[in-house]
Amino acid sequence: MVWEAHISSSSSNYTESTSDHSLFIENTATSFTILLVYVDNVIIVGDSLSEFQSINVIMHSSFKIKDLGQLKYFLGLEVAHSSQGISLCHRKYCIDLLTDTGYLACKPVFTPFDPSSKLHTGSSAPYADVPSFRRLIGMLLYLNNTRPYITFATQQLSQFLTSPTKKHLTAATRILRYLKKCHGQGLMFPRDSFLYLSGYSDADWAGYLDSRRSISGQWFFSWKILDLLED
After folding, report:
1. What are phi and psi of 116, to 5 degrees?
2. Which of 26, 186, 188, 225 has the least C-beta neighbours within 10 A?
3. How far apart are CA 160 and CA 209, in angstroms?
């Protein structure tokens, strides 16, 4: 909170994001800079080195800070820079998740979700350890940042955090088995990427068994994003 208050009240032109109070943005005629604060860690992203130096001076005037250089690791997110572009992945996070859940040596599968499976409330016997199920889904949801392929599966399971069943647990462990197959996958942002906008949408017919409503989904891409495959 001290960081946020100081940035907001400083002489800089940073404005606090309305959707995320730890995110600050400065957009001028000559530069665009984003500043993200998490406890005592600060990430600066932008197109002006002079602005980086300026905000460092502002922060250092009130706090003893240390410049760690180019971003490589942040909250489980691994960042790799090369002449081809910037890659993001959660390799270590995935391995730790598989280790903690006991699925590091499991048999992998090729898809994160069984398309023939229809999840709904009371689909099987209740799963007794509700807190561990919620924790697992929460950790999987965090992976959505770099693993869009598991987004649908985790979204489906997140609807049953109140009263999960053993069938829901089986569906969740399938995601773990999928991650075992490709725990090093991530996203690649090429340096020669170009801006474009494309969108996809689809819906089934009364696919949600609890309410008999249709399930719809949309995907929108504003930049060229490529998959980073593990060697």
Report:
1. -85, -5
2. 225
3. 13
Burial of 97 (0-12, 13-18, 19+ CB in 10 A): buried
Residue 107's SS3 state is: coil
Q: What is the pLDDT of residues 170-198, one digit of tens each?
A: 999 999 999 999 888 898 888 877 667 77
Residues in the chain: 231
**The residue to which tokens 């399971």 are assigned:** 157
Mean pLDDT of 163-167: 92
* pTM of structure: 0.76
Distance CA(72)–CA(88), nearest Å, equals 9
Amino acid at 2: V
**Taking Cα atoms as reference points, which of 78, 81, 104 lies closest to residue 185?**
78
Cα-based angle 227, 182, 106 (whole degrees, multiple of 5): 165
The Cα–Cα gap between 115 and 109 comes to: 13
**What are the residues facing 195 on neighbouring strands?**
223
Cα distance between residue 130 and residue 164, in whole Å: 7
Copy the structure tokens of residue 116.
Answer: 């023939």
Spell out the domain ranges in the chain: 2-69, 88-228
* Side-chain-facing half-sphere of 54: CA atoms under 13 Å: 15
Sign for the CA dihedral angle at 216, 222, 224, 229 comes to: negative
